[in-house]
Amino acid sequence: MTAPASVLVTGGHGFIGSHLCARLVQRGHRVRILARPGADLSNLDGLDVEVAQGDLTDPGSLPAALAGVTRVFHLAGALKGFSEEALLAVNRDGTRNLVGACPPDLERFVLVSSLAAAGPSPGGPEPRPPGAPDAPLTWYGRSKVEAERVVLASGLPCVILRPPVVFGPRDRDVLSYFRIAARGFLPVPGTRERWYSLVFAPDLADGILRAGEAPLPSGETLPLVNAEPVTWLDLGRHIARALGRRGRELHLPEAAIRAAGQVAGLAARLRGRPEIFSPQKVIEMLAPAWVASPEKARTLLGWSAGTPLDQALWQTVRWYRDHGWL
Questions:
Q1: For the segment 121-141, what is each residue's pLDDT rounded down to a tens digit?
Q2: Residue 289 in 3-state DSSP?
Q3: Span of the secretion signal (predicted)?
Q4: How confident is the model at residue 247 (pLDDT cuts 50, 70, 90)?
Q5: What is the DSSP letter of 127?
């Protein structure tokens, strides 16, 4: 019996990447991750993975990490920065370095991009129309589009995945909303009803794994989203229920949110450390909606997000509490 394929996961020690590594190990794959020296690997405790030290922005560090690899799952990237150029340096140029170091006989390159690359949907629960041209709103979204273009132009057999908002155990970005809900408040941006696609991290990991194995035509781009979008307020109510709390709605004026984003951005610059909540994030928050269709992934991958929302939120809350985050 031949040994299972060896795979490289960039960002494998991160929130989503660690869930993917767990799935890959469970399937019997030999997993290698790319990590910078001194990276926090605690998300991988107990998993049998090999660590290759390297950095996407250092091309010379990548060939050794890719030696003997037949599949690459590229999750690493920059979510925040003080300029579009800072995000492009990692998300576009780092991706270019990675594909340039891939072996010529690579079987599949999976790029985990973002729904931010596509741009928002028009509004309401209807998904963004299939085939609509990409219209990213932010530095991050544009940098992910550029990363996708690099992969598509590389000639490697590839698939591009676009997840929406991702939540689940180990996530810190959505954690702040759980903490606010735990205090009994459900903040809602503005008075307009905004709809969002979501995905639970373990479900997303299953979809990424399938994308690495399914016989897809090279260059396919697929959203990986829950079947049913939710409004911001409904999500808050579901989170409050998972917490065992009753939440009080707080409708925040859009002008106040923009002002808060500017203040947060200035404070981050003074500290010299970019944060998720920023003027760029406010642009995304105040968009009409972020909804994509799950049909393409269901048809081509046989994948759907199998964990009901309330169960997924309850599992997330339990993990947060078990680890002292709530």
A1: 999 999 998 889 999 999 999
A2: strand
A3: none
A4: confident
A5: P
Structure tokens at 176: 């702040």
Q: What is the mean pLDDT of residues 15-19?
A: 96
For 308, half-sphere exposure in the C-beta direction (CA atoms, 13 angstrom radius) is 5
Average pLDDT over residues 279-304: 94
Top-level class of domain 6-164+199-225+292-306: alpha beta
| Residue of 274, 271, 306, 260 whose CA lies nearest to 85 | 274
Confidence of residue 210 (pLDDT cuts 50, 70, 90): very high
Cα–Cα distance measured from residue 315 to residue 165, given in angstroms and rounded to the nearest whole number: 17
Quick one: tokens of 221?
């781009």
Per-residue pLDDT at 246? 86
Mean pLDDT of the region 253-262:
93
Q: What is the pLDDT of residue 192?
A: 84
**By CB neighbour count within 10 A (0-12 exposed, 13-18 middle, 19+ buried), where does 253 fall?**
exposed
Tokens of 60: 């010379």
Q: Which residue has the tokens 């599992």?
A: 315
CB contact set of 156 (below 8 Å; sequence gap of 6+): 99, 102, 106, 109, 218
Question: Angle formed by the axes of helices 309-322 and 175-182, to 10°?
Answer: 90
pLDDT at 1 over 80: no
Query: In terms of DSSP H, where are the helices of 56-138?
Result: 62-66, 84-91, 93-101
| Sole residue written with tokens 């990213």 | 136
The answer, yes or no, to whether residue 288 has pLDDT greater than 90, is: yes
Say how far apart CA 158 and CA 110 lie, in whole Å: 6
Q: At what angle do helices 84-91 and 93-101 cross, to 10 degrees?
A: 10
Which spans in the chain are helix H? 15-26, 62-66, 84-91, 93-101, 139-153, 175-182, 201-213, 232-243, 254-271, 279-285, 295-301, 309-322
